Amino acid sequence: MTQRSGTSLEFDFVCSLSDGLHARPASQLAEVAIVFASDCFLTNLRTGAVASLKSVLAILAADIRQGDRCEVQVRGSDEQSAHAALLRFVEQVLPACDVPLAGLHPATAAGKLPRTLQKAGVKGYFGSPVSPGIGQGKVIPLSGMVLPKALKTRAAADPQSELAQIKRALAAVRARIQEKLTHPQSPTETAVLQADLAIASDVSLAQKLAEHVLQGRSAGQAVMEAGEFFIDLLRHSESEYIRERALDIEEICLHLLQEIYGVDLQSAAIELCEPSVVVAETLGPQQLLGLERRWLKALVLEHTGATSHVVILARSLGIPTLVGVKNARSVLLAGREVVVDAIRGFVVPQGSPAVRKFYEREQKTLELRREFLPVQTTGPAITTDGKTLEVAANASSYEEVSLAFGKGADGIGLFRTEMAYLQRQRPPSEEEQFAIYAETARTAAGRPVILRTFDLGGDKGAPYLDLPPENNPFLGYRGVRIYTEHHELLQAQLRAILRASAFGQVQVMAPMVSSLDEVLQFKAAISQAKQDLARKAIAFRSDIRIGVMIEVPSSAFILDQLSAEVDFFSLGTNDLNQYFLAADRDNPKTAELSDVLHPGFLRFLERIVADIHAAGKWVGMCGEMAAEIRHLPLLIGLGLDEISLPAAGIPAVKRAVAQLSAAECARTLVSVVACRETAEVEHFLEGAQPPQSAQPLLSKELVLLGSQSKDKEEAMQEIVDAFYIAGRTEDRQRLEEALWSREAVYATGLGYGFAAPHCKSDAVIADSIGVLRLNAAIDWGSVDAKPVNMIILIAMRESQNPSRHMKVFSRLARKLMNDDFRGHLLAVENAHEMATYLAQQLEISLH
Amino acid sequence: MKVVAVTACPTGIAHTYMAAARLEKVAKTLGFEIKVETQGAMGIENKLTEHDISQAEIAIFAVDIAVEERERFNGVKVIQVPLQEALKDPHSIFAKIQR
Questions:
Q1: Which of A109, A368, A442, B9 could form a disulfide with B15 if both were Cys (CB 3.0 to 4.6 A apart)?
Q2: B14 and A803: CB-CB below 8 Å?
Q3: What are residue B36's phi and psi, to 5 degrees?
Q4: Residues on chain A touching B25 (C-beta within 8 angstroms)
Q5: Predicted ipTM of the assembly
Q6: Nearest-CB residue to B10 (from A745, A796, A818)
Q7: Cβ within 8 Å, pair A750-B18
Q8: Is B9 tagged catalytic?
Q9: What is the pLDDT of residue A181?
Q10: Which chain A residue lies closest to B39 (C-alpha atoms)?
């Protein structure tokens, strides 16, 4: 197929790669071409787009998809050898480039919109909700490609010196990437770095930059404009893979800007001035803290880690957050009004009447739910068989502490003191810390407060610490490890903590302990602080309880030794899990591996708790694992003395504890640690959820009369919302879908204006009957084709199948065939009467 | 005339029992003697015995799923209809029998 046409050598080929000619093969192709003096061009015969083979960006922009026929033309002094090399590459190397990079596409939650929104044709973008809530505002993409105002106005010097600046910056960026490439990398990282290097070396990019400078732009403006040009080009690609490469260009441009201006633009704060939804790939904790809280309504991150520090922080600040929203920065346009639903897990554009109506209703539902679900502010959480579990709160500021006690916290199980160290040029003074801790102790009014000494390093840096950059910060210099070097900083904090201990039950805990020696040094530091205070006759509690975090697996194997030195332990399951499973919890590619329900990890926890209890010491859990209600049977089964979680979850957790039996939970744990895989563990957990005995089948909250719903979708939503308000479901989306999938078999309209939708689903926490009577009849696809104005909904828990309530359900079904019964249901005057009549007819209790 | 019937639907929570009640009621008004077995979430209830089946002239299957222990009905005349028929128009089922 090779031929000479005019003065050039040509051949053509068909792209066989399923992702198209994407970044990796494109950069390799450019590497082959660039060593030759000849001009090498490629034409995509489908689109007619022509690209220089020496430019990765140009190749990507030609948008070559699987099946596209391309023509390669080579012309110049060394065309023979260039042609041969390119042909060899296309025939032998290119087909092997089809192996996708492992996990390069982050796992995203593919979800469904609620039916009322689906029906209105609303488009949603899905992600995993990691900090619950609903936020509305304008999209503010944090792309990093924003020039601070001061730099924007900087005028261009003469073109030649601007050009020289750009060349210097390009060379520096390339050198930095090459330097990184000399360190050991995973194949994925290497491939990504190589693609970055190809962009930084790209001839088209260099050309574009020069063009802009020669037109009188400053070096910075040229980078911005050239970057935008290519980003725009790639974003219009048909291939998702190539669209994602736009982010790489953005990153390279950002590095260039940093080289040119010598400032860290990434941490340049964005000013919010109206309700905003910040959209970013990911955020550092500092960046989040730098955003104006008043206007930050929600966060949307492309990144998937559900336990990254930014997520933990967002949760404790109560900022609704979605993670794993694919291409969020490309699909969510800047300035657009959106609603972030971090209860269900999607973003939808605000503005359509359906969305407005949906969220007006949602607001009422949430208010009603808050009113209905009583907040237990007093009283410990006790299981049905009399075991008490302390339910404490995690906090990182005094504001959160007072919020936590308002929610019924039994104490503060983890006070992340380091949050006060971030986002500032100097560390907080002893006095400043003392004020916070003392106020916390007073507010706690005798309840325990565990202050964890600063856990800095890793992803939590501070300028005054002068921490070196690390290849692997989570395995690096952080937590207790930096205390020797920052001795004075620790002393100031310990004195503040000790002084606060005079005001309440303050306890002190060290982070990231991996050896006995660290504990001994920590205790020595406490002794020194005590001596200092004693010398100055300042009051403190001399028997302050000292504890350590169990986060590093090595510490879990010397618990007998540690127990001889400390009073208590707290399991930091986020880090413990990531170190135990050797899976980076912030890495979207391994996020799935960092799984707290791994049977091996559960066995590990079981052993840790047993060892600590054998030594007669106290153990709590403050990791994210403790925040999920579905984990409760395990946590109680483990025999933990305390769990500590974000304050918002406390009332629900306390209610759930009161419905579980410790003896049964212990049995659940035995079964679960014998499981062979996580899926099996999850199955057991489903079955071990708080029993339904506490909930009657029917209550008047589940009876809605006088409904205004206009169609089947609305009616279904209204009744599911009633279940949510009454605490019968935590997952409306799943319950709704279970009902609709039954409707899909055939509609449940049974004639006479009645419908009986039903499902088996563990989305309900108890078997339930709901009633909705409509003012105006709606279509339900009934057998007699008549509209429906009376809906009786039956929801049964799947894992308790067959349910002990089946007899009642079948009785209800049979009665629906009875004219008198139906007549009565249509005639009763109010919800109370309806509930009473049904209870009597079905022979059930309402209590 | 004596008939037997089996009702069964996919979830076995509601329609199995609604259809059974409906068939029983209509049979009574039409003067049939009927026994209806339900195959729902509680398993088989009101089970048709060998004797019941041998006495019946016809068996009605108002079902959306396979009938369990189908072999009991070998050699018996069976009318099978979608379960919804029993709710929509039970009279026509009995009309078919009489023809």
A1: B9
A2: no
A3: -115, 125
A4: 817
A5: 0.91
A6: A745
A7: yes
A8: yes
A9: 82
A10: A810
